[in-house]
Amino acid sequence: MNQMIFSNPVKLNAIRYANKEALTFKDKKFTYKQFNERINQLSHALRDKGIQKGDKVAFMLFNCNELFEIIYACSKIGAIFVPINSRFIGREIQHVLQNSHAKLLIFNSRFSDEVQQAAKQAIETEILSR
Question: What CA–CA distance (Å, rounded) separates 113 from 94?
Fold first, then answer.
């Protein structure tokens, strides 16, 4: 069976329309070629972190170009992307991470306090469940 990968159209457009604009966010503009290169770099970085097909990658970001890059990079390597609402607090983040079994969390630095709280709660939960 021939499988269509979500990121394939970006790769094809990078060949066909290399210098045409693919993505714009605020004052940033990316051609299809640039967008595809960024997706490739991120997919390699995810693999270097040990992410494989079927693994879950959570992300907690505001709207930004990196959000799309993560989604396409995950698709490229067969990982599953798990979005976390930017309004979630520690216990809600912990709940999503535990229930999704995400192997990696990518987040904006503005969420550091909430992510640290989620990590602390996860450790406490782990200790209590032993």
Answer: 13
C-alpha dihedral, 96 to 100 to 102 to 105, nearest 10° = -20
Q: Give the residue numbers spanning the domain of 60.
A: 8-128
Long-range contacts of 98-102 (CB under 8 A, 24+ apart): 98/122, 98/125, 100/56, 100/58, 101/56, 102/56, 102/57, 102/58
Claim: this prediction has a pTM higher than 0.90: no
3-class state of residue 106 by DSSP: strand
pLDDT digits (tens, 9 = 90+) for 38-75: 999 999 999 999 999 999 999 999 999 999 999 999 99
Tokens at residue 87, please?
């309004």
Q: Which residues pair with 24 in a beta bridge?
A: 29
Output the domain CATH number for residue 67: 3.40.50.980
